[in-house]
Predict the structure.
Amino acid sequence: MKHIYLDEIKKNESPPKIVNIFSQKEIKMIEELYYILPESTFNKKQNVRKKSWVQNYNKELDQIYFNKLKDVLGDYKMDSLKSETGENYYGLFHESFSPLPLHVDSGFDEKTIIYKQVITPLSSFGDTIFFKKRWYGRSTTFTIDKKELKFKPKPGQNDRSCDHLGDKNFDTQMHQKYLTHIDINNLKGLEIEMIYNWKVGDTLIVDRSHIHCASSIDQKKLGLTTFTKK
Ligand SMILES: [Fe+2]
């Protein structure tokens, strides 16, 4: 799959931006919501716990969140799976104990005009590394593992690909400092666009086409991510 409305997608692209749109009280409300929401996934192997932001648990917060995003993003729509009652989820809470691999969250529908990814950390630990390279296919996990490359994704699961690779060796110092959980040969041709160090109170706004991964730190990270489209 390749995105059809590429021009439109590229027109809306911009450098990553950190904003402080939520007050301490609002961050606390978001955190409290996380604890009362039902569990969506607990993947023991990957040690990841996910919960979708289902609307109507805290209607006041639903409204605050939607509108504050609108202040920074302009017109946008949520681009996540829908609940059983057909309502958009407002985001995905993600609690992980081991770093996420190299991937892109470019979506699963070629007709979607993918827009920004909004990341709000709820723990001040670790980093997300964004690379300059962009990807306009389906959401993909990048790997050089031959066995892994044979993986056939089900609907909603990432493709596997090694088509992100280029010729230039990746910076060995950066690899040593941030990315030891990733084979350096899987980073060939990539350059870092931004290292985002997680801090509670920040919100990071970044294009969905950027290839990214977590830094190689083993400690619990909890954050909220919202994928948007135009
Ligand atoms: Fe991601």
Q: What stands out?
A: The chain has a mean pLDDT of 94. The first strand starts at residue 17 and ends at 19. The pocket of fe (ii) ion is lined by residues 103, 105, 212 (CB under 6 Å).
